[in-house]
Amino acid sequence: MKIRFLILLILLLPALPLLAKKKVNTVFYVQNTLNGFKNRPANEQEMAKLLKSIGYDGLEGFGDQNFVGLRKTLEGQGLRMPVIYAPLNFEVDRKSEKPSLDEIKEIIKTATKGTVVYFHLHSDSYKDDKEKGDQVVAAILRDLSDFATGFGVKLAVYPHITLYCETLEHSVKLAKMVDRKNYGAVLNLCHLLKVEGSSGIEDKIKRFTPWLVAVNICGADDGDTRQMGWERLIQPLGEGSFDTYGLIKLLLDNGYKGPIGLQCYNLKGDANETLTKSLQTWKEYKERYLTGDLRSTKK
Question: Per-residue pLDDT for 32 more than 90?
Fold first, then answer.
């Protein structure tokens, strides 16, 4: 028995330094998009209890809703609100800015230290002139970032199809323009696949990971993803032909340490079953990464 143990130890010794360097301590949360489930939680208390019972780290908050009350409910279950999803409207006349910049600053002020506030951008004035629009919104975001510094809050723009910022590259471009240490970019897998397609993702991850402060993932199909509907681009984690594990591995290999959210928009069926299966898949991803499993999850 001792001889076998020594042989095994000798075989493992070369891999120990590599394994010691690998860590996956990222917060794994659920995006606040559970309305499609047939037995969706009826209120904040039920939602918090469900996520706690399954084992998630937290839930996304909405800046234009009562995120403070939701956060207190989550904290009562030992859960976190690592990100807040908030609208940012910027127009020439500034009349349709809702929430106002003062209200956005209040969101930042009220957020807990370490929170990422990611904005979905809206602008009728600049949607056809993004060269000028980028200058306008970057100035706004720079001011907000300077304000957020005192509260330990990070900011970013969330790419979303049909909105002002639709792509990961545009989110990174704005981050470079803002040029603040507490400002970054966001990767959302389903919108990336829908707007940009799956080709070239590896190169984008390698180039853009240093800018990322939040990532959202799901199961999805690969192929001509720009022509696919959400039922194929947003699936429970572990389902679909797209190699989501490969995406996670690339992010971690390139130094990503921020929060990762589970996209659940328009998922059907049983909430407990789907969320449990997705969390189990996430745990399997972490185990594979830590043990150096190089198998692809593509089907």
Answer: yes
